[in-house]
Amino acid sequence: MGIAGRYILGNHAKDLPTSFMAKLDSADKFTGIDNKELTGWILAEDNHLTSALLEEPAIELDVKCVPAPGQPAEPGPKQISSVSGRGVPCSISITLYGPMELFDDVGQFFQSNDIYLQDPHLCSRNVKYCNPHRLPPEDPASCIWTSELEKKTAPQLSEPHIYNTTQGLLHLLESHVDIPETQQPPFIRTTMAR
């Protein structure tokens, strides 16, 4: 999931980091893990999300801060850091780890907030990957591992056909050949209309 924030870049830091791992100190504040000088805050409109995540002890979080490209730094608010520095707009990417018992609750919570979880770009743990906002595999035991996410490509639905001319494509569209019906996947519980 991604949320918006700003972080303080102290006067000692000369270059903006391209990204850094962080931890949520509270619903509205975060700190760099490797560089404690990097502190920041979550924008107020996203505090209810981070608050809910922090209140659930069974959920663990990996937090990554990515500075917004091309954004000018602004003076940081005094209440965030006693170190004078520049406020840098950023996006906060959060990867959630938790038990399967919370799977549906997590999905419903984010959906009720108009947020739909995406595949993580990088995971620090190699665990079974389950996302409540993606169609599950037909066999739940066949869920992929997070280490396989970058290797996994979308399944091909049919063999590709190569048509050399535009006429070949138009002929295909005008064809009256019936396409064979496919079996309904088991994870769709509603009977499809005919």
Which keywords apply here?
194 residues, alpha+beta, six-stranded antiparallel β-barrel, 3 helices
Could you give a short description of this structure?
This protein has 194 residues and is an alpha+beta fold. Helix content is 14%, strand content 23%. The chain has helices at 47-55, 103-112, 166-174, and strands at 2-10, 20-24, 29-32, 39-42, 60-67, 74-75, 85-97.
Describe this structure in words.
The chain is of the alpha+beta class and about 190 residues long. It has a domain at about 1-120. The protein is about 15% helix and about 25% strand. The protein has 3 helices and 7 strands; from the N terminus they run E-E-E-E-H-E-E-E-H-H. The chain has a 6-stranded antiparallel β-barrel. A hairpin with a 4-residue loop joins strand 2 and strand 3. It is elongated. Mean pLDDT is about 75; it is low at about 10-15, about 70-85 and about 155-160.
Largest sheet: 6 strands, antiparallel, barrel
Q: Kindly provide the radius of gyration, computed on alpha-carbon positions and rounded to a whole number of angstroms.
A: 23 Å
Compute the average pLDDT. Answer: 74
- Given helix and strand content, the structural type is alpha+beta
**What's the order of the H and E elements?**
EEEEHEEEHH
| Overall 3D form | elongated
Note the total helix count. Answer: 3
Question: What is the tally of beta strands?
Answer: 7
Cα distance spanning the termini: 37 Å
What is the helical fraction, as a range of percent? 10-25%
Low-confidence stretches: 9-13, 72-84, 153-158
Strand order of the largest sheet: 1-4-3-2-5-7
Strand content: 15-25%
